[in-house]
Structure formats: structure tokens, C-alpha cells
Amino acid sequence: MFRTETRTDAKGKKYAWIVKSTAMVNQFYFYGMDEDFGPFFLKFSTYFPYTAKLCINGHEYVKRQLAKEGIAFEPLDNGILSCTNPKRLQEICDGLSAAKIDTLLRKWLAKLPHPYSPKDRQAGYRYQVSIFQAEFSLTQVLDRPQTGRIFFEEIIRENLDLGRPDQVQLIFDRRVRKDTPGRFRTRVLTEGVIPSLHVDYKNTKIKQYHKEGRALRTETTINNTYDFNINRGLNNLPALRKIGFQANRRLLNVQRLSHDCSLGEQAFRQMNEPTVVDGQRASALRFADPLVQALFSALLIFRLLPRGFSNRELRDHWAPLVGKTSHSITPGQMTYHLRRLRLHGLIERLPKSHRYRVTKQGWRTILFSTRSYNRWLRPGFAQLLPEEAVPGTVLRRRFDQLDETIEQLLRDSKLAG
What we know:
By secondary structure, the chain is an alpha+beta fold. It has helices at about 60-70, 85-95, 100-110, 120, 145-160, 165-170, 235-260, 260-270, 290-300, 310-320, 330-345, 360-385, 395-410; strands spanning about 1-10, 15-20, 25-35, 40-45, 50-55, 75, 80-85, 135-140, 185-190, 195-200, 205-210, 215-220, 275, 280, 345-350, 355-360. The strands form six sheets. Strands 8-12-11-10-9 form a five-stranded antiparallel sheet, covered by helices on one side. Strands 3-4-5 form a three-stranded antiparallel sheet.
């Protein structure tokens, strides 16, 4: 083989020189092209116990199968950009099994030279396949790539806390305690102008990035199966596949809740608009209605009572909040409000009784609504109203600066009245 060595010329200047030499070869590789799996490589160790490594790419397997079946597709680097038969595409992806991978290995072990001779194999010395590393990816192709890049950068900014233990255990569905080994963190790495989001759980990592400007790529790489109490046998590939793809989906769900307001918008409208349940119609619980806010405040008192509350008990607490006495509100009027709350899913009736309790979703909705109204919305309006607000508050100063900037822009553009 050839090596480089450092030599010195007559003037003392050092330079590199190529010389013939010998060396012990520790590893040797075979790079192959399989008709079913596409490119792969096999790496063998030259010393006992002659371990080996097989590396394959599932996307290449899928592309080969689509081509063999005559299904038109547009390839993406390490993925599929489009396909005329997406249902069949998914079936092919799901069909990449441990048995097919093992068959590929046996096929090429029979063709290639390797440390175990035919006599060794007849004596029972055979390779057993274990999973050294497995990557499970989800590629979502975007119809507007430029918008997708902006969308992904917004996701990164809003999810820098994903590496915290409380978030990681949601994504991987694993309990993380103080004594759980491993590093839990979020990193944002930039290669050129392309950012990528990285979330670590022990030896397992999730990477998310904008792929080739066309797709959002989420991939979970499991480097140690024992992170999930699963041994490395190839027969455990289905279990690892489930863990990997579920982690991808959970990450996207967390990001959707933090970025996309469609779910929050739907929940907000469900409360603020009339609803019909099993043919029963209930009027809206308007967020800004002082009667509704008072009703929510009264319900907070009953959250932890195991027996729930009755019509009269709620009436006794609600009446003072609206400036009335409990005697001035009839049971029928209170029943009307109880019916509204029940049909909107905020309370439920206890079986075989005339008592009610606040639902889990109702508790969260009521608590968030009352706190945001009392601690943020109402005090905020008190600071920003031009005439009534105190001049020295931060919010008032910022709005005054904004008004002045807009007025100056209008004057500079000669648009002012």
C-alpha cells in the first residue's frame, strides 16, 4: 500500500512524499448494487470474532420496488417527492421487513468472500443480525416551498424547549426522572443558511430540517435499542419502527399545537358560538360577557369537590359576582345556565342525582379564560386607552410611539389629512 511521510529538502523545508509500505488491514468493504435494495455496503473485520456491518437505505429499496412495478414517481434525495400511486407506495414502505433484510444478507454472504469458510458455516458458525442503528423518517412535501421554509423557522423559534425532560417524555412516551441517564437537550444547527432542529433522548436523536427546499423532514435515529428496553435482535424491527414513527408524529403534534392556531381557534369558537348536541341547542358562552366570566369564576370553587355541586350552591356563589342576591335568581334561571355549560362540555351531570361536576376540559377552559381576562386583557386595555390610561405605563408608551411612527410615515408620504 502507499503511505505519506514527511521529508526535508536541502534548505530545511518540509514536504510530503508518497512511499510504498505495508500495513495490517483491519476492515474491508464491499459496495454492491442489489436489484431489490439498490446500493448497499458490507463491512468485515479481519480479526476475531470477525464482526460485520450491513448498511442499507430503505428509500432506495422503495424506489427499486416502484420501478419494478412500473409506478411513476419523482425521487427526492433520500425520499419520494411525488408518486402516482401513494397507497401502493405506503404498502411497499410497510413491507420492508426484518425477514427481507436478513434474506438480502444471506444472498450476498453466499456470493462474497468473508472470514467464515464453507467448512465454518457447515459447522454452525453463522452471522446473526442485530440492529446497530435504525432511522425512521417522515417526509412531508410542501406545495409552497418558500412558505414552508418560513414555517419551519417559526417552528424552531417556538420549540426551543423541546429538549426539556418534561417535553422529551411526551415525545418518546418514556418517563424521565432525575436519575434517568443521558442528555436531554434541544440544539439548532445551521449548515450554510439551512437550519435544523435536534432533540436528544439518551442515545436516540430526532432531527428535523427543511429538505431541499421542498419538504419538512422529521427523522428519529435510534442508536441504542436498550434506551427503550428492547434488545438488538433484527426480529425487534417492528417494535422499533413503531417507536420511531410515533416519536415523529408526537413531535409534529407538539409543534402543531404551539404553532398552528386552528385547534385553539376551533375550541374558542365552540365555546363562543351556539352549539347543538343531540338536537338540543344551547346559546353561546361569550368570552367578554360579564355574566359568563362571573359564572366561570364561581365554577372554579367546585373543581375539587368530590360530590360536585347543586343548582342552589352554584346560584349562591354566582349571584354576588353579578351584583345580585341568590333569592333574586330563580332555580329555573340557574337551570338555563347549567344546561348551557353542560352542552358546551364544561360540566357534566352526576348519574342518578341533581348534582354536577366540572369536566377536565371544562376546568382548563374556565381557568384559562378567567385568568387571561382578569390578569391580561382587562389590565391591558386599562393601559392602552388613549384618554384614560396612565401616561407612564410601558404599554401606553409603546402604543404612543407606534401612533407617532405611523403619523410620521403618513406625513413623509404626504398622505396625512
